[in-house]
Design goal:
Blueprint (H helix, E strand, L loop, with lengths): L1 H11 L3 H4 L2 E5 L5 E4 L8 E10 L3 E10 L2 E2 L3 E4 L4 E4 L2 E6 L2 E5 L1 E2 L4 E5 L9 E3 L5 E3 L9 E7 L5 H14 L4 E4 L6 E5 L2 H15 L3 E3 L3 E2 L2 E4 L3 E11 L2 E13 L6 E4 L9 H17 L10 E9 L8 H17 L3 E14 L4 H10 L3 E8 L2 E9 L6 H9 L4 E11 L2 H9 L1
Parallel strand pairs: 22-23
Antiparallel strand pairs: 1-2, 1-13, 3-4, 3-12, 4-11, 5-10, 6-7, 8-9, 8-11, 14-16, 14-17, 14-18, 15-16, 19-24, 20-21, 21-23, 24-26, 24-27, 25-26
Length: 424
């Protein structure tokens, strides 16, 4: 089937040249620009995949939309605002690598030596920086605590997890601020099982894992403003920082956006970075139950510093965190839970039990149709209610029903469930 599929790609899909121009955004002006698929245009390439090769190391797969990539060339990454040198270019045919000197417009290849690039990054020239539309990865919906079987393997485990996150944007790791545990998040139980298995097979790291848990998030439903003054003595030195922050909701699925903005323009670079990091810290820890926050925008509206000798990054970072928390608390925060799209195929005689079970799990039936003597039920069900569902559906249908599920959306947690989560 693979050969026929690839033949179809060649026969029916347009070539990059036939596709025409590609849209991008100018980093400096924010205006929309286009690039033609020719070698004469300024470099415009997109990293669409990152993989770890046991012999070559880190490989970034990229498509050249315009211009050329040349071995030894310096490219600019607008996300990191850094230049990197292309040490090696390869053209791939299945698992065979062919070294090349140049990748031309419309071609796909892999780059060795890029340390800072991740999936979705644009590679361009520094004097004409632009960004292509990023590849959007969905938010993880489930997590497990993970630890090495021996304390000596902690560093090895962290390095292996970082490699997995580089390759898979839906894989996220963090350290729990309260327990110090490593947390591995993914798109479901099967995804997490595969990641843990890859740790063992590909990286030779044996790990103990905890019970899978649902990844809840926090958001805001209104706008709010917060203000905080950090004025205290530490180590015999008086530190001062004053920060104001405004937050507002964004559409569901838009993610979180933090902007230091014009208020930090005149600050020394170290202090501006501390304020920006403070916003990120606040977004990552939330205000209700320390869950990460999504679908909101945070903006620094004012910053004041006292004497230069009293201005330390730690003070501005703390002030930004506390100002953000005050703003978020004033903006009617809510808990969000992942909702799964469930498709159940069942014999007609069991459809009543199946629908009743969906309703009992706080689910909603969206559609039902006949298909070849079976009933197909489409429903939306909170992920928290689907643990052990494979056993339950077999019991309800005497082993004759099957199902598939995939992430659908995030929804506000009902009040009764929210109280249970906040008090556990």
């Amino acid at each position: 089937g693979i050969q026929r599929l690839l033949d179809g790609v060649v026969d029916y899909l347009p070539s990059p040249v036939d596709r025409g121009t590609v849209a991008a955004t100018d980093v400096r002006s924010g205006s929309a620009v286009t690039r033609d698929c020719t070698d004469k245009e300024p470099l415009t390439a997109l990293v669409f995949k990152v993989a770890t090769d046991p012999y070559v190391g880190r490989l970034c797969f990229a498509r050249v939309y315009a211009g050329t990539l040349r071995k030894g060339q310096n490219v600019f990454n607008p996300r990191t605002r850094k230049r990197e040198r292309l040490l090696r270019l390869v053209r791939l045919q299945a698992n065979t690598q062919h070294d090349v000197e140049t990748l031309y417009a419309g071609e796909i290849g892999a780059i060795a030596g890029l340390k800072g690039a991740t999936t979705g990054d644009t590679l361009c020239t520094e004097h004409q920086p632009l960004v292509l539309e990023r590849i959007q990865a969905p938010e993880p919906v489930m997590f497990i605590a993970i630890e090495p079987k021996s304390r000596a393997d902690r560093d090895k485990l962290e390095q292996a997890l970082q490699a997995l996150c580089d390759e898979d944007p839906t894989c996220v790791t963090r350290v729990d601020a309260e327990t110090g545990q490593l947390i591995l998040s993914g798109m479901g139980e099967l995804h997490l099982d595969v990641l843990v298995d890859r740790l063992r097979r590909e990286f030779n790291v044996a790990a103990n894992t905890g019970k899978p848990m649902v990844s809840y998030y926090e958001t805001i439903t209104g706008s709010g403003e917060g203000h905080y003054v950090f004025d205290r003595e530490l180590g015999g030195k008086r530190l001062f920082a004053e920060v104001s922050v405004a937050v507002e909701p964004r559409p569901r699925g838009a993610g979180a956006a933090a902007e230091a903005g014009p208020a930090c323009r005149d600050l020394p670079e170290a202090l501006a970075e501390a304020v920006a990091q403070g916003l990120e810290d606040g977004i990552s820890t939330g205000v209700l139950a320390r869950y990460p926050m999504i679908d909101l925008g945070a903006r620094v509206t004012a910053v004041r510093l006292g004497d230069a000798e009293n201005a330390m990054p730690v003070a501005f970072r703390t002030a930004a965190v506390m100002a953000f928390r005050a703003a978020a608390e004033a903006a009617l925060p809510e808990l969000l839970e992942p909702i799964m799209r469930l498709v159940i195929v069942t014999p007609p005689e069991h459809v009543g039990e199946v629908i009743g079970d969906v309703n009992a799990r706080r689910g909603q039936v969206r559609d039902m149709e006949d298909r070849g003597g079976t009933k197909v039920v489409q429903a939306a069900v909170p992920l928290a209610e689907l643990f052990g569902y494979s056993t339950a559906i077999r019991s309800l249908s005497r082993g004759r029903a099957s199902y598939t599920m995939e992430p659908d959306a995030f929804a506000v947690v009902p009040r009764t469930v929210r109280e249970h989560l906040l008090n556990r």
